[in-house]
Amino acid sequence: MIATNPRRNPSARVLYHQIVSKVAPQSYRDTKPRNFSLVSLCLGGEERKQIMSQFFAGTNYTGPAFQLFGVAHIAALAFLVVLNIILIQFKNAGDDTKRTIRWTLAITLWTAETLWHIWNIATGQWNIQNLLPLNLCSILIWLSGFMLIFKNYTIYEFAYFLGIGGAMQYLITPDLGIYGFPHFRYFQTFTSHGLLVTSAIYMTVVEGFRPTWKSMLRVAFWGNVYMGIIYFVNLAIGSDYLFINAKPATASIMDLLPPWPYYLIYLELIGVVTILLLYLPFFIKDLRKKKLAAIRS
Description:
mainly alpha
């Protein structure tokens, strides 16, 4: 930001008028000099209001819709990949640095999710049928913050298997509807779900956590118990959290599966395969260790 006041600095005044005369709207050129930033040089008050109103717009949003695997989608995924590559470089960093990173990730997760609820309330879209933190990603976003701050291994087990598995699927096929870049919903979605994945990876690579066979059993057991509870919650309030009472109302990949309740079997199988794939790197690592130990002995 340029902090210079053009009224007090002649050089700044000349620069101000030169830039404004070339790039700013006519309505803004007619205004008096003021303390200014790069944004205020290019946009007048009305233009800024229009941009911000669209950034936080609800169902009246008129900007570009989200395009699956479009430029904005690929850019967000690429950014998350780069972020993870950068963070894993802190494996040998000091405890204070690691603690700062964990707190930063936790606060960012909670902030993004809180703003998501505030936005829905402000735009009149919040309701208990869709926005209680009962979906796996929603509840794990909140829990992952505690995992990061307190280095909680129990939460880590669920964040690794269910958080990475669920959030990765959502990041690849996000349900953003009309809210494309640069809407608030676009940034919030890739921040919350992206950092859910990043948090589990960070705790694994940098903090040295790892799942075990028992972790898989615990996650599978308690995951199904949770699904059973949510089934009855859905019946009580008329919701469809976890999509275990019915398929999504909008088109999705679940349309390829058999009708309810048979598609639940397929979802269970997909969950088992996902957990096994996520455990595969550790299985291979343990197998190699055993082979090396056998050779040395």
